[in-house]
From TrEMBL:
Belongs to the ATP-dependent AMP-binding enzyme family. GO terms for molecular function: acetoacetate-CoA ligase activity; ATP binding. GO terms for biological process: lipid metabolic process. PANTHER family: ACETOACETYL-COA SYNTHETASE. InterPro entries: Acac_CoA_synth, ACAS_N, AMP-bd_C, AMP-bd_C_sf, AMP-binding_CS, AMP-dep_synth/lig_dom, ANL_N_sf. It holds the Pfam family ACAS_N. Residues 546-620 form the AMP-binding enzyme C-terminal domain. This is Acetoacetate--CoA ligase. Coiled coil: none annotated. It comes from Ktedonosporobacter rubrisoli. Residues 43-97 form the Acetyl-coenzyme A synthetase N-terminal domain. Keywords: ATP-binding, Ligase, Nucleotide-binding. Residues 103-478 form the AMP-dependent synthetase/ligase domain. Its EC number is 6.2.1.16.
Amino acid sequence: MVTSFDHNHSLWEPSAEQKSQSGVMRYMQWLTQEKGLHFADREALWEWSVTELENFWASLWEYFHIKASQPYKAVLSARKMPGASWFPGAQLNYAEHIFRNATDERPALLFRSEHHELVEISWQELTNKVGAMQQALRTLGVQRGDRVVAYMPNIPETIVAFLACASLGAIWSSCSPDFGTSSVIDRFKQIEPSILFAVDGYQYGGKTFDRRPIIADLQQALPTLKHTILVPYLLPQQTELPENLQATLLWPALLQQHSGQMVFEQVPFEHPLWVLYSSGTTGLPKPIVQGQGGILLEHLKTLTLDVNMQPGDRFFWFTTTGWMMWNFLVGGLLVGATILLYDGSPAYPDMGTLWKFAQDTRMTLLGTSAGFITACMKAGIEPGKTFDLSQLRCIGSTGSPLPPEGFLWAYEHVKPDLWLASVSGGTDVCSAFVTCSPLLPVETGELQCRSFGAKVEAFDEQGHPLIDEVGELVITEPMPSMPLFFWNDPENRRYQESYFEMYPGIWRHGDWIKITPRGSAIIYGRSDSTINRMGIRMGSSEIYRVVESLPEILDSLIVGIELPGGGYYLPLFVVLRKDAQLDDQLKARIKEKLRREVSPHHVPDEILVIAEVPRTLSGKKLEVPVKKLLMSLPVDKAISIGAMSNPQAIQYFVEFAQKVNKLKGKSSS
């Protein structure tokens, strides 16, 4: 058993059999047989995939038997960013590729929630329901290009609604029902939807939340809405519609009225599939538009060649419909996997909930976040002893960097022969830039490799590539799943500012990354919230790893503020366990641990207790908006309150900022 951070010792090595049976090895053999191409290892294949872009993506089109009613005229019309145009001329449909996998041999979906027992949905049932909903949407006047939005949890009905929408060439967008009214309106109003799918309410952490009043608010705020389709999820026996809802239809009745053979509207490769949103920490959330063909190819590539998903796998990611990982999870249907849906709190009734779900569903891949793994570690649970996880071969982790302790915990307390796949990407491409591979070992604290077709590099401030040094994560070649555009963004201004302002023609993602000489990588958190003290840059994730390893500390936030005259102010905010106190002894331990494990330059000037860390709706710490508050920006310029999961948490920092700004005034005088 590994008990220390030994970088000379791999935590996991794939066996010769695992390598030979992997999806990426089959693809490499196909390239040899069909194209006469030989690659010594994965790194050589990656190099070819980012150098010979057109040949690589064309090979995937052929390898995955992409079904197109019209052929493409070129692979890539212009190799530039922004402005790359992929597979012009091709006509296809994303949903059609999902239903190629319809089979009686295995279920399409498995679903459980806090108040629903485990159920299976067969491919036949899914086909019938999507066909009926497609006909219903047609009857309601939905056409290609229309926007269809959902205020729905991660339940089978949401999958049905999305697939019906995609099959028609309509454009999908979703928010989780835990989003507040203003957050939903800020997103949906921008894209002018004609249809809203919504649930009457949901349960989380054992509590029920009625969403009917919010649906009424949405109907008032979205003037383009023609119809609302209400799913009686919280009150399944409900047959009467609330009086305050306009032009609303009940899901069960609507499905009963329609049936029919599914039709797959053929659309251009770059026809919009869905609109995702940036976390929207300032200003309105950015509505990111991604294409049917780009997502189809990207998800087939990533799930098959990197995640090593095979037909018959049982694929789960703990996500809501407001995070891109829901869209990625749906992609499991493209490769013939059964996808597993869970709606509820991962900590209710206890931290064993998702591990029991893994046991009961015979899950093969469990996807989660670094935060969940850390929470399990702190709760002291041992899933490997408590549950039958014999089918589980892989745990995926994303959302934020997984600390080395998280890696070790998984191997010690879940399964010693586990493939731990820590990956990092973004909503912006609905995929991973830095990913996992069934051909490579797992090293403590590292992401295994760069994704095929993603030319990921680390740049210094002058735009020079770095190896074995921390730099800006950049993408230097286009990818098919990059945004087609932002909705309602004249002349692509917001798009240009978001990715291409620092390095013209080069995508800057906003993360710190170090690429090792072996081609693996370490992510150090967001580059715009990096602590840069005395010229020494430190990712906030490194500080959190050390601070949050102390048993008294549940959560933390750190920001660095440049003061006039060259000064630097570094406050650390901590959330304590109920029985803990921030006395001089604990402060001294925190400082000593940071001095020892991070650097003497990154010991905080002040440590303060807060009730909770402000977070985005997708769970990210709001470091940059807090930093902006402390740099004298007014609240409305620093943060979008509606984009927060816990708006009350920001009030502390508003008041604290007044104190800091007085300090800055003294510093400059």
